[in-house]
Design brief:
single chain, 1103 residues, Methylamine Dehydrogenase, Chain H, Jelly Rolls, 5 domains, 8-stranded antiparallel sheet, 7-stranded mixed sheet, hydrolase, repeat
Length: 1103
């Protein structure tokens, strides 16, 4: 019996010319450091043992993998544009459905966050509504602020920081504000950053599941508003009232199985059992308490923890409902700490700023505690001493500030925030110790000619307090402090390739310094830039300083604010400008890198939205790589086997797609090497490629740790070729089982080894026999794909028929994407795995050419036999018609167009073709609203456009079509063609087409096209008037005949599919006209027939 595991199938055709693919299959994972960031909450599912989640302030949400004893990060789908969503301000579990999770996402209130829901334990997420949250601001460690009613899963409460208490009664699809509960302090929106201005709002929502209302909901709901106290509903959430005598500044709330309430506050622990009482905790002397939990299996067992943002917390346990307490403390024999890695070797990282503490409902005595760095577990909190272990595997939340990748010895060193950094001898194991006893490390380097000599810059806080320089003579095993220039605050350091005693150091808002004696003394350089680093803060996304890895005593220093590269050839004593001219002066961050050996003439600079710039002459000149609209980070890496050129890596944006891209030919072609589940998008900070292993790259983040990517599989560079030796011809049929040669991750991707059906081919794709002859693709799993080489021999309208079978009820669906055209399919047949039906698409226009066709599965429940592309011979959508009026502005004015800050252009440098174009400047626009479109139809806009200044980018936009605005960025100063695809809504027959200029620059456009085909034809003012003109010989081999002329005079114009006029005829005093097409190449052609003031458009096919 066929078993196919996906429901939605996706085809993608990639054009063979200049394109991006995942050239190799990459494995992505964290370099193991363990913890390093604030775990602000933890919850265990009440109905499923081992199902546990923790939230962090800036590192996302994690789920515990009970089988492998590790945490799984759940937010790899977030790209840098949405990195604010990595903050989790609170979350909630559904007692009745272990698969459902709700989360309030948003690090900072200055950027939009939202309430999200997952139906699959955090693998994928749906945004339910916008919202302002602040997981990395004041009182991030308290809560939870969300709760699902355990007696009615449709009811969810969410306490917000700025909108009061929200409630949903339909599983989060709709929300309303609950009256009767104050909103609390909502902050100062004009300036949230001072701590006292942070929005606080409602930080606790707890539902007593043991109380049940007559409606079926839980009766008792508790909401705490910081500064206001505890509010209670006793009628299932219909109304709330303030509980008299409750403490005002509540941090956390817990409900015992016997309905007794406990809260922690800034002045102690309180209990409510008909009235409020403050519990005396002795021994103690502490006023402020935070974490608290009541054993779900014994209401007398309580655990709580001292205060907020303090080191060396104490915990207290009670087995008599709070009447008496026992202190647990790491330094008095009542606790023993295990797993003594760098986390706890001096106990300085144990229970710092304890946030949450909970009993495990599934194992008596087991307790979990979270703090500034990790999660701690105690198997039996009642024994003396209690034993504590760090469950840190898989939890990576450190902030990466520097990366060093020597060409010999240990291949990776990291500099980090809060925990200094590490020597990563084994990247899959916890490091044994920190590099120094400081907190931050912003600079790291080694000597090219003697890798055992290293240096680093370290400080004791984010702002550079106690900044010190350290050196190592034993390959980073030990570092010794040397002198540091007076006034230094954080900074970067580089070591001369030939002499470890010669170093250059630079810090924010300062000129560079140099040493010739290994750091025993420092002198200020002359001639260098004064602001190569523009901040003394530890978050220095700039990486401007590097030693020449080949030339002796040579250093480079980038002054990105002025677009200059400085060079020193005397060990940093003096500097001169080696480049000024090509590089833009930018306020963006910039990374500078130079290659090594005989390639030390190769250099690169990434400048965020000012792009990527390369030099092949040691920086004498640079040229821009227009492939990227944003180049956030750049690095050289080890050369590909067989090549002498180092590989290039860019973290950036190509075609609106964030990714990590690799080039093996110094920027001529690029491959994307990550995927959409591995964006590594949490504010990426630093990137360096491995010098010892080809294809390996390290990416640091601001809160998700340090990642590595490496090629998987035996052959890092396999080749792809057609199954039959040549591409499949379209029009024609493509058997699904005849995918290309090339193997795993090249011609196909299959999650299981071996051929489950055992038919036809001996590889990992699952193929079975077809009862009509031939073979089917089956046993398909989510994410698997196949590729086919195809040759579309003729441009035109096609219908695609796919032969499928299924025995599963319900609607099955898939889609086809060809030449950026998307076609949707669906069917309901479930008559059997060998009972075949043909599903035929709507017409789609395809351009001729060679392509790779990719078939990708996104769900299960049907088999696929073949794909049949059929060229239409008439009727259907008029895909070659340009639906815009005056698309090339050849009227010499803005007829049919509108906008502001725009002008008609006649300067030939501003035109793509013809005599006229158009331009707009300073956020101006050129726009036209088109009417008469078909609803639920996909259209394409293409246009030739360019910017007049590098880095100041305009955009092409479409809105008013019944969907969200779609756009593409104009990212080049040379004319290039841009395409925007959109689909009209079910009740929409119009769309507004627009070019918008950059805020402080100018963009020009020419030759717009709008149609249901992706042609770039340039036809002006075509109006489709459907009178009775007909072509009676279509398709034809020899001639075309037109009948039913209504005027005594007419013009007949013949265009090819690209809009080039081929012939023009005058027709007079006849109702019919014919002309010879024997000299025409086979294909589709367009007729424009002008009678008086009417234009009619028709098409014909030359056989």
């Amino acid at each position: 019996m066929w078993k196919i595991k996906k429901e939605v199938l996706l085809f993608i055709l990639f054009q063979l010319s200049y394109f991006v693919t995942l050239a190799q299959n990459y494995n992505w994972d964290n370099v193991v450091v363990g913890g390093g960031g604030y775990v602000t909450g933890i919850q265990i599912h009440p109905s499923e043992a081992g199902l546990m989640y923790m939230r962090t302030d800036i590192g996302g949400l994690f789920r515990w993998d009970n089988a492998n004893d590790r945490w799984i990060a759940l937010f790899g789908w977030i790209d840098p544009n949405n990195d604010n969503l990595y903050g989790v301000d609170g979350f909630a579990l559904d007692k009745n459905n272990p698969d459902i999770v709700y989360a309030c996402l948003g690090k900072y209130p200055t950027t939009q966050g939202g309430i999200f829901k997952s139906y699959d334990r955090g693998v994928t997420w749906e945004k339910l509504r916008d919202g302002i949250f602040a997981s990395n601001m004041k009182y991030r460690e308290v809560g939870e602020n969300m709760a699902v009613d355990p007696n009615n899963s449709n009811i969810i409460y969410c306490g917000t920081r700025t909108e009061g208490l929200l409630k949903s009664t339909d599983g989060g699809q709709n929300w309303f504000t609950v009256t009767g509960v104050p909103w609390g302090y909502t902050g100062v929106p004009s300036n949230y950053w001072p701590k006292d201005n942070n929005p606080l709002g409602i930080r606790n929502v707890v539902i007593d599941g043991n109380s049940q209302h007559s409606s079926g909901n839980s009766t008792n709901v508790y909401v705490t508003v910081y500064g206001e106290g505890v509010y209670r509903s006793s009628d299932g959430g219909n109304s709330f009232y303030k509980m008299n005598g409750s403490p005002s500044n509540v941090y956390r709330t817990a409900v015992a199985p016997n309905n007794v309430i406990y809260v922690t506050a800034d002045d102690g622990v309180y209990k409510y059992n008909g009235g409020w009482q403050q519990l005396p905790i002795n021994p103690g002397g502490y006023n402020s308490f935070n974490g608290i939990s009541v054993d779900p299996n014994n209401p007398n067992n309580i655990i709580t923890s001292t205060g907020v943002e303090l080191w060396w917390q104490r915990q207290y346990i009670s087995n008599d409902a709070g009447a008496t307490w026992k202190e647990l403390y790491a330094f008095n024999g009542t606790m023993e700490v295990h797993d003594r890695t760098w986390h706890s070797i001096d106990l300085g990282f144990f229970q710092a700023a304890t946030a949450a503490i909970i009993f495990d409902p599934h194992k008596p005595g087991r307790v979990y505690s979270t703090d500034w760095y990790q999660v701690w577990r105690c198997e039996n909190v009642w024994e003396t001493p209690s034993h504590w272990y760090n469950d840190v595997k898989g939890h990576e939340e450190i902030v990466v500030l520097a990366i060093c990748t020597p060409h010999q010895g240990t291949p990776l060193f990291s500099g980090q925030g809060d925990v200094v950094g590490f020597k990563h001898t084994d990247q899959k194991e916890l490091p044994l110790k920190r590099l120094t006893d400081q907190a931050e490390c912003t600079g790291l380097d080694y000597c090219e000619n003697d890798y055992t000599k290293m240096a680093l810059v370290s400080a004791s806080d984010w702002y550079g307090l106690n900044t010190s320089i350290y050196t190592s003579n034993d390959a980073g095993d030990n570092f010794t402090e040397v002198s540091t220039p007076e006034g230094a605050l954080n900074g970067k350091i580089a070591i001369a390739s030939n002499d470890p005693n010669k170093m250059v150091f630079v810090y924010g808002d300062s000129e560079p310094y140099y040493t010739t004696d290994g750091g025993n003394s420092w002198q200020k350089s002359t001639g260098g830039p004064t602001r190569a680093l523009t901040t003394t803060y530890m978050y220095q996304y700039d990486d401007p300083l590097q030693a020449d890895r080949t030339a002796a005593n040579t250093f480079y220093l980038l002054d990105r604010e002025n677009g200059k590269l400085y060079k020193s050839t005397n060990g940093g004593q003096s500097w001169f400008v080696s480049h000024s001219g090509n590089l833009p002066a930018t306020s963006n961050y910039a990374n500078f890198a130079a290659a090594w050996g005989s390639n030390n003439n190769l250099m690169g600079v990434s400048m965020w939205t000012d792009g990527l710039w390369l030099s092949n002459n040691s920086g004498s000149s640079f040229y821009k790589i227009d492939y990227f609209s944003n180049a956030r980070m750049f690095s050289f890496g080890k050369e590909k086997p067989g090549s002498s050129t180092p590989s290039l890596y860019v973290y950036g944006v190509h075609n609106n797609q964030w990714g990590i891209y690799q080039s093996n030919d110094f920027g001529s072609t690029w491959n994307r090497i990550n995927d959409n589940q591995n964006y590594i998008g949490n504010s990426p900070t630093m990137m360096k490629a491995d010098r010892q292993t080809y294809g390996k790259i390290y990416v640091g983040t601001n809160g998700s740790g340090l990642f590595y990517g490496e090629i998987s599989g035996e052959d890092p560079n396999p080749t792809q070729s057609p199954y039959n030796g040549s591409a499949f011809q379209i029009p024609g049929k493509i058997p699904a089982a005849e995918y290309d040669f090339g193997g795993q991750n090249v011609a196909y991707y299959d999650k299981s080894s071996g051929n489950a059906g055992g038919a036809f081919r001996d590889d990992d794709v699952d193929i079975g026999y077809n009862n009509q002859g031939g073979y089917d693709i089956g046993w398909i799993e989510d994410g698997e794909w196949l590729e086919y080489s195809v040759n579309i021999t003729q441009s035109g309208n096609y219908k695609v028929t796919t032969t499928v079978a299924s025995q599963v009820s319900g609607t099955k669906s898939f889609e086809l994407n060809v030449n950026n055209q998307t076609i949707n399919f669906s069917f309901d047949d479930d008559s059997g795995w060998q009972s075949y039906v043909d599903i035929t698409s709507e017409e789609v226009y395809l351009n001729s050419g060679n392509y790779i066709m990719r078939f990708k599965a996104n769900s299960y429940s049907f088999n696929v036999h073949e794909f049949d592309f059929v060229l239409s011979t008439g009727g259907g959508n008029e895909c070659s018609q340009n639906l815009l009026n005056n698309p090339g502005f050849e009227s010499g004015d803005f007829t049919s167009w509108s906008g502001w800050n725009n002008s008609i252009e006649t300067n030939t440098g501003h035109l793509y073709s013809g005599n006229y174009g158009a331009g707009a400047w300073w956020n101006g626009a050129i726009e036209q609203t088109v009417y008469g479109l078909d609803p639920n139809t996909q259209y394409y806009v293409t246009v030739w456009a360019k910017n007049l200044e590098s880095g100041k980018n305009g955009s092409i936009n479409v809105d008013g079509h019944g969907g969200s605005t779609v756009s593409t960025t104009i990212n080049s100063t040379s004319f290039a063609q841009y395409t925007v695809a959109f689909t009209t809504g079910s009740n929409n027959t119009s769309a507004k087409i627009q070019m918008r200029a950059p805020a402080e620059g100018m963009s020009v456009v020419d030759d717009f096209w709008l149609g249901c085909g992706a042609s770039n034809a340039r036809i002006t003012s075509v109006i489709d008037l459907e009178h009775q003109l007909k072509i009676v010989s279509n398709p034809s081999l020899n001639y075309i005949e037109i009948v039913n002329f209504e005027s005594t005079q007419a013009d007949v114009m013949v265009y090819d599919i690209n809009g080039h006029q081929l012939e023009r005829f005058k027709v007079e005093n006849t109702p019919r006209f014919s002309f010879d097409i024997n000299g025409y190449a086979p294909g589709m052609y367009i007729l424009l027939i002008k009678e008086d003031d009417q234009l009619t458009r028709r098409k014909f096919i030359k056989e």
